[in-house]
Amino acid sequence: MSQAKGICFHNVTLVRNGRTVIDQLSLELSEPRIGLIGHNGSGKSSLLRLINGLLPVNAGQISVFGQNPSSGPEKMSSHVGFIFQNPDHQIIFPTVEEELCFGLINQGLSKSTALEKVMTLLSEQGRCDWAKRPIHSLSDGQKQWVCIVSIILMNPKVILLDEPFSALDLPTRYQLLSLLHDLPQQIIMISHELDSFTDFDRIIWLEQGKVRQDGPSDEILKAYYADAKGVNPR
Ligand SMILES: Nc1ncnc2c1ncn2[C@@H]1O[C@H](COP(=O)(O)OP(=O)(O)OP(=O)(O)O)[C@@H](O)[C@H]1O
């Protein structure tokens, strides 16, 4: 298994509640933009959770930039940022400023340096006035923006997004997609909104914890649509 360069799965199996949900999966994930698709329950979220150590493997090995995710999500946080579907599962502080400072302070920055970084980024985004805003006053899209920005501040090597747009309207989705589009980090994203994968390098289609198809996004999305419409019944 090649190490250090990126994310590698070698014969990985994950069992949840007695059911095999990732089945002897071997993958190298090195492209800058990778999409994960598949029907409900096919194992997409489980796969992302293996990468940042939220779930431990039952068999096989995973290497994430040379590190074993079994060291746990906190240890992985300098390499891996995770954005959940529901921002309320991620946000823990009452104001935007406190939420954004938290990860940086966890990474060892002083409170004042963390605040300086947060204010610089808010200013770059034209949102200085957001610093003191109570989280409960934000819409779902605005909360998701805070989650994405909090991950960007921590500067991980890869950002994992688990259906980040499912509760958002179209304009908010496009704003967040444009924010993600310009980031230098590798992105691995799950979405059922397939037009979110415009410009992605690679799409992996999961089925029952195995790869059904894997390749350039146009090709795989076309096959997925055709399958869903029953054009290519198996
Ligand atoms: N917390 C859990 N405990 C036990 N089993 C779980 C848990 N979450 C999911 N599973 C099981 O793991 C399998 C894969 O689920 P997973 O959430 O990874 O699929 P998914 O492809 O992300 O689905 P969806 O598109 O519905 O989000 C499913 O069979 C599901 O029942």
Automatic annotation (TrEMBL):
Residues of the ABC transporter domain: 7-233
Domain of life: Bacteria
Gene Ontology CC annotations of this record: ATP-binding cassette (ABC) transporter complex
Gene Ontology MF terms: ATP binding; ATP hydrolysis activity; ATPase-coupled transmembrane transporter activity
Matching InterPro entries: AAA+_ATPase, ABC_transporter-like_ATP-bd, ABC_transpr_CbiO/EcfA_su, ECF_ABC_transporter_ATP-bd, P-loop_NTPase
Pfam families reported in the protein's UniProt record: ABC_tran
Keywords: ATP-binding, Nucleotide-binding, Transport
Transport among keywords: yes
Gene3D superfamilies linked: P-loop containing nucleotide triphosphate hydrolases
Annotated family: Belongs to the ABC transporter superfamily.
Designated name of the protein: Cobalt ABC transporter
Protein's organism: Nitrincola tibetensis
